[in-house]
Amino acid sequence: MTVHADYRLSQLAELEAESIHIFREVAAEFEKPVLMFSGGKDSIVMMRLAEKAFFPAKIPFPVLQVDTGYDFPEVLETRDHWVDRLGVRLVIASVEAAIANGVVVDDGKTSRNRLQTGTLLHAIEEEGFTAAFGGGRRDEEKARAKERVYSHRDDFGQWDPKNQRPELWSLYNGRIHAGEHMRIFPLSNWTELDIWYYIGAEEIDIPNIYFAHQRRVFRRDNMLYSESEHNPLRRGETVEERTVRFRTVGDITLTGCVESNADTIAAVIGEIAVARVTERGETRGDDRFSEAAMEDRKREGYF
Amino acid sequence: MAGPSMDLLRFATAGSVDDGKSTLIGRLLLDSKSIFEDQLEAVEMTSKSRGYDYTDLALLTDGLRSEREQGITIDVAYRYFATPRRKFIIADTPGHVQYTRNMVTGASTADLGLVLVDARQGLTEQSRRHAVILSLLRVPHLVLCVNKMDLVDYSEDKFNEIHAEFTSFATKLAIPDLTIVPISALKGDNVVTRSQDMDWYSGPSLLHHLENVHVASDRDLVDTRFPVQYVVRPKSDEYHDYRGYAGRVAGGVLKPGDEVLVLPSGMTSKISEIDLFDKQLDEAFPPMSVTVRLEDDVDVSRGDMICRPQNAPQPSQDIDAMICWMSSTPLRPRQKLSIKHTTRTARAMIKDVQYRLDVNSLHRDLETKELVLNEIGRVQLRTTSPLLCDPYEKNRTTGSFILIDEATGVTVGAGMINTAS
Ligand SMILES: Nc1nc2c(ncn2[C@@H]2O[C@H](COP(=O)(O)OP(=O)(O)OP(=O)(O)O)[C@@H](O)[C@H]2O)c(=O)[nH]1
Ligand SMILES: [Mg+2]
Asked: Contact, B324 vs A166, CB < 8 A?
């Protein structure tokens, strides 16, 4: 990345420096941090930044994945590859196991995405994690735009958006009481485009479903979903093969794809730079339920 | 489109409730084509369902349920946009006095502050308070936007009146760079393009100013300050003897070969390498995050500061600072708090509240011996262990601290150091 002659960092280098600072601060001040791996490009960029922050030492905390049982196989492959390469411990919190153990209730109506919250909070409590890194970015959604880098969670894992702690300069306050934890968002100030520039600049390995590929898909509520045993077709829906890519990656039943021929990072960047719809608006079924869907889920302790 | 190598400007809005801060940010985003269709549709729908005559652009940033219900901003919203010249990080802060601490949060990292006033009302106590806070925070550039010009018939006289009033108030503050622009956030006059209705104004549009304001010289590149954040010890065979001091450069330019002094121990050594991941750098400067290695095996840990032998901060337990108080329990002498300064945490006792600043008159009230919520004052405190500090006016990183309530764990004060002894 470029260093300007007048000792100014490029915006991407400045974002990187800010994120690395956050990782180190948390590692220094919290007893048991964990990095939440969602499978998407953002959590992979987080892993890359964590790798850089502690190099040549290993990342001094484990990685936690909430396994919905509905994850893309390509994502799990990339996850294993990263965990292997970095030599970190992987903690898997399985939604299926949580349902089986009665930690969360699958009433057949609640989405897997929603059941993740209870599963996640249970895992955090069981393992005694005091800080959990999340890949949320403020440009993603209007409730996320309001959240601090250090986001305090009470005993119930809840976020109180009307009563956030002041956060001054880069002096982060990591004080918590027993039973509480802090969500940490090192990518707060990154935009979708920044993430892609960084993936390009650093040659970061991400799941290939982010690039154009042939896929059997069907249309529902104006979005294209992948054919999947977990997502039975409803009346009138038909499967066809299209050239698509994913703009976000989550639960296979809720993450839509977009028609695209972008098969390289440069092509993806070209596409996003002129995109007229946000990534969540275009591809996330879970954000469409109400105007404050994300705020409500975040209050409950969602990522 | 944000190129990866363009530079970054962080700015924050300020000013009284309803003066149009969020509307202005909505307008900037909209007119610079940074709003996505689904976002615009959502706010158009909400505006319509509420029976508004026009699209309420403030809804683009007022993202919380209670904010939308009440039509005010409660907490900072961060928004991002880029033009071919620059990338911008915007902190849209609340104007309501009750949420001043959130305004301070948004302004603390800003390179530039945008103070809005309603042209019909002129300066209010809250606009003055925010200007004072921006100057105390040493936000190096300030823009006064005289907003809602559409409601005063784009009157030049009205603009000049507020211009004069603010300029005279600003002479009493530390504001190195002041620009004043007449705008209408709602209609878009002078926001991205020059207004047709104010031919008497010959200055730049707001966006033009934001794109061109010179921010390169705002960082201290002379006084080397490297607060050690984390000690990197791989404990692997390959890197058996590796010992690196990780941190973010707070001042100066570090180079391999530089002679350094480590505080508080007073030991000296030389920089052998500066690492950024697997690369070795020729130099490091603010705000880079790097790992510094030293030639000698000196004892260095988190909270220590690497600087130069002839140019070091003062280790000090007696601190004189301006404090913005952010708790509903007043700040009083003898109160004990936690203090976090750079990477060092200690306990502090308030020794004296020297004065409370009246944000309207800038009068120093020497009688009051406490600061209540949202008040600003000059305070003396003593810490349990020495802090390695500089005056805030010299360095925003080594000159700032936060105060934390020991029982609740909440951040209750922001401090800017005047002197340490
Ligand atoms: N006519 C006119 N109305 C404006 C203008 N700018 C803002 N308004 C209106 O003023 C009202 C308040 O605007 P906001 O943008 O919410 O004000 P704010 O400064 O963000 O308020 P807080 O964040 O709560 O402090 C809204 O009804 C806006 O539509 C303007 O230039 N002209
Ligand atoms: Mg507002």
From this structure: no
CATH topology of domain B226-307: Elongation Factor Tu (Ef-tu); domain 3 (2.40.30)
In chain A, residues with a C-beta closer than 8 Å to the C-beta of B327 are none
Homologous superfamily of the B7-217 domain (CATH): P-loop containing nucleotide triphosphate hydrolases (3.40.50.300)
Q: What is the DSSP string of A267-301?
A: HHHHHHHT--S-HHHHHBGGG-S-TTHHHHHHHHT
Domain ranges within chain B, ordered by starting residue = 7-217, 226-307, 314-420
The reply to whether residue B39 touches residue A57, judged by beta carbons under 8 angstroms, is: no
At B401-410, the pLDDT tens digits run: 999 999 999 9
Q: Where are the alpha helices (DSSP H) in B246-354?
A: none
Residue A1: predicted pLDDT? 45
Average pLDDT, stretch A4-28?
91
Structural domains of chain A, count:
2
Q: Report which ligand 1 atom has the smallest distance to the Cα of B17.
A: 25
Per-residue pLDDT at A256 exceeds 90: no
Query: How many CA atoms does the CB half-sphere of A53 hold within 13 Å?
Result: 27
Per-residue pLDDT of B9-26, as tens digits, reads 999 999 999 999 999 999
| Complex ipTM value | 0.94
Strand-by-strand arrangement of the B77-82 sheet: B77-82, B86-92, B7-15, B112-118, B141-147, B177-182
pLDDT value, residue A290: 60
- Note whether B75 contacts A166, CB cutoff 8 Å: no
User: Does A110 share its domain with A187?
Assistant: yes
Residues facing residue B189 across a β-bridge: B184, B193
What's the rounded Cα separation, in Å, for the pair B260 and B238? Answer: 27
B314-420: which CATH architecture? Beta Barrel (2.40)
Say which amino acid occupies A300: E
Interatomic CA distance for residues A36 and A18, integer angstroms: 19
